[in-house]
Amino acid sequence: MKQTLLLLPGDGIGPEVCAEARRVAEALVPDILIEEGLVGGASLDAHGVPLTEETLTRARQASAVLLGAVGGPKWAAAARDKRPEAGLLSLRKGMDVFANLRPAYCFPALAEASSLKPDRVEGLDLMIVRELTGGVYFGTPRGIDEAGGLRRGYDTAIYTHPEVERIARTAFEVARGRKARVCSVEKSNVMESGLFWRQEVTLAHAEFGGGVELTHMYADACAMELVRQPKQFDVILADNLFGDLISDEAAMLTGSIGMLPSASLGAPGMPGLFEPVHGSAPDIAGQGIANPCAAILSLEMALRWSLGKEKAADALFAAVGKALDRGARTRDLGGALTTPQMTDAILAAL
Ligand code: NAD
Ligand code: IPM
Ligand code: MN
């Protein structure tokens, strides 16, 4: 049976960068069947919900899912459960993709494009392993209401033993294929859920059976260390919220948030969800200037982590590096190439 890649372009620059990833897929792995569906604001406009049951079912049955981005000012006033972002969260939860891998890799040609001094980021290669289906993003109770005459807003940061155990094990496994160092971050100095996280990660590490070094750091200190000496890290293990924050921060180390891909993985054999770390970028949507690299590198991660096409993934990764070496740059990287032109440069290097 043919492998299927479900494209969910979404909103804003999502469709622009997904179209480029599609061109690359068609050229590189023509045997894979590509399908498309709606998510986010696009789905809300068409069906009244940001994710339909049908799309979730198709996502679960695909070999891999590649998503562009969701959200935008048009839907910012929608009720929480109708917001485009809610569709993305339901997709992650519904696919049970609990492990979000966000690699911050500085391509040699882009060391100058980072907001940090080149010597800080040259050779940078770190992996953030972010828990994606739990924590304060999903904890209950949550709400905005009134108690004792006072209006209040609240969320619940909660993790269970199996949730921390499985993401910790994933981080150790990922580290084993790299430099075998995991730094787990939380706020155990302030939060009970943070202390629990540290205890559970320590237990999971003892059970893992050696070969991987584990250290702990407070999340605020990690945010600082990421811009001081980012190359000290190999794998950073973080909960849903801290992982979200530090991955945007790490993006800037690589030159632009337009460079950062991600892979969200569940149980072995289940389809992964692949998406750029960036959002729908309403400020540049429709102008044809978005950097397609994060989407194209998300395709690269899909080939590697879900589709069993490592050679194609290696070739694509090398082609992105080569295109950058040859000077190909979109505006966010200080260049003038349009979105399709950037892809042309990558295809030419393939
Ligand atoms: P954003 O990532 O969309 O944009 C932040 C800045 O980075 C903007 O200046 C934008 O122009 C720039 N940028 C982002 N991607 C780029 C690319 N590929 N090429 C060039 N420049 C790029 O974040 P935001 O503005 O905070 O959020 C906008 C919307 O996207 C919100 O509705 C938010 O909820 C949503 N969002 C969605 C996802 C997702 O779908 N995975 C991720 C983050 C934010
Ligand atoms: C991300 C985004 C999402 C998140 C939003 C859009 C729900 O910021 O993928 O990093 O917070 O996880
Ligand atoms: Mn984010």
Plain-language structure description:
The protein is of the alpha/beta class and 350 residues long. It folds into two domains: 1-97 and 282-350, Isopropylmalate Dehydrogenase, CATH 3.40.718.10; 115-254, Isopropylmalate Dehydrogenase. 41% of the residues lie in helices and 18% in strands. It has helices at residues 14-28, 41-47, 53-61, 84-95, 118-121, 161-176, 192-208, 219-228, 240-253, 293-305, 310-325, 339-349; strands at residues 4-10, 33-36, 64-69, 99-105, 125-131, 143-147, 150-154, 181-186, 213-218, 235-238, 263-265, 272-274. The strands form two sheets. The protein has a ten-stranded mixed β-sheet, with helices on both faces. A two-stranded antiparallel sheet has the order 6-7. Strand 1, helix 1 and strand 2 (33-36) form a beta-alpha-beta unit. Helix 1 (14-28) packs across helix 10, helix 1 packs parallel to helix 12 (339-349) and helix 8 packs parallel to helix 9 (240-253). It is globular and about 60 Å long. The model has no long low-confidence stretch (mean pLDDT 97). Residues 71, 85, 88-89, 244, 277, 279 line the site of 3-isopropylmalic acid. Residues 71, 85, 88-89, 244, 277, 279 line the site of 3-isopropylmalic acid (IPM).
Q: List ligands, each type once.
A: nicotinamide-adenine-dinucleotide, 3-isopropylmalic acid, manganese (II) ion
What is the share of helical residues? Answer: 40-55%
Going by helix content, strand content and strand pairing, the class is: alpha/beta
- Briefly, what CATH class of the largest domain? Alpha Beta
How does the overall form come out from the CA principal axes? globular
- Please identify, by name, the CATH architecture of the largest domain: 3-Layer(aba) Sandwich
Biggest beta sheet attributes: 10 strands, mixed
Give the name of the CATH superfamily of the largest domain. Answer: Isopropylmalate Dehydrogenase
Number of domains: 2
Q: According to CATH, what is the topology of the largest domain? A: Isopropylmalate Dehydrogenase
Q: What is the succession of H and E elements? A: EHEHHEHEHEEEHEHEHEHEEHHH
- Ranges where pLDDT stays below 50 over 5 or more residues in a row are none
Share of residues in strands? 15-25%
